[in-house]
Amino acid sequence: MSAVExxxxxxxxxxxAAQRGDHAAFDALIMPHRQALHLHCYRMLGSIDQAEEALQxxxxxxxxxxxxxxxxxxxxxxxxKIATMACLRAIERRERLPAVHAEITHLQPxxxxxxxxxxxxxxxxxxxxxxxxxxxxxxxxxxxxxAAVILREVLCWSAAEVAALLDVSVPAVNSLLQRGRAALRSxxxxxRRPLIDYERRLLRQFVQS
Length: 209
Hints:
By secondary structure, this protein is mainly α. It has a domain at 1-94: RNA polymerase sigma factor, region 2, helix turn helix motif (Rna Polymerase Sigma Factor, Chain: A, Orthogonal Bundle). It has 11 helices and no strands. The chain has helices at residues 3-19, 23-45, 48-65, 75-93, 112-115, 120-129, 132-139, 143-154, 159-166, 170-186, 197-208.
C-alpha cells in the first residue's frame, strides 16, 4: 500500500471514529486544518481575537455536524464553508462596516509566531496573504464581496462553489468578484497613512493577478 493510500485509510478511520463521537479522533482529523482555518477567519475579520472566536464556532459546528458530512467534497472544503459562514455571522453581529480605514478599530496584525509554525515553503506566501495593508483593504469590502474575493482569489474556489456557499448565482459571484477587485484597485478608501512600497506591491500584485 502506498503512502497516499495509507493516509487515505487513516483519514477514513479517523472520520468514522469521529462520526461515532470520538473526540480524540475528531481533534486528530481537524488538526491539519486548524491553521488554515484560522488564517481564513483572520482574512475575513481582520482581528486575531475575532478569528479565534470564529474558529472555535467553526470547530463546534463541525463537531455537531460531522454526522452529516458525506465526503462529497474534501474535508478542508467543508470546514472552510463552515468557517466562512461563521465569519459572516460575526460581521453581522459587530458594528456596521466602517466607511474609512481610520475607523477600523478591530484591525490587528497576524502574529509572526503563528506564521512561523507553517511549512517553510509556505511562509513567504502566507506573510503576503496576511499583510496588514491587504487585510485592511479587504475589511473595507462588503461581507459578500469580501467572501467572494477571498474564496476565489486566495483559496482558488470555483465560481460555482462560491455560489453554492453564498446561495447566489454564478453570475452574481462573478459580479461580486469584479466589484471587489475594482474597489481594491480604485484606492478610493486608502488608509490615511501612505502605504509603504512593500504594501503597495502586495496590493498591486493581488488586483493584477
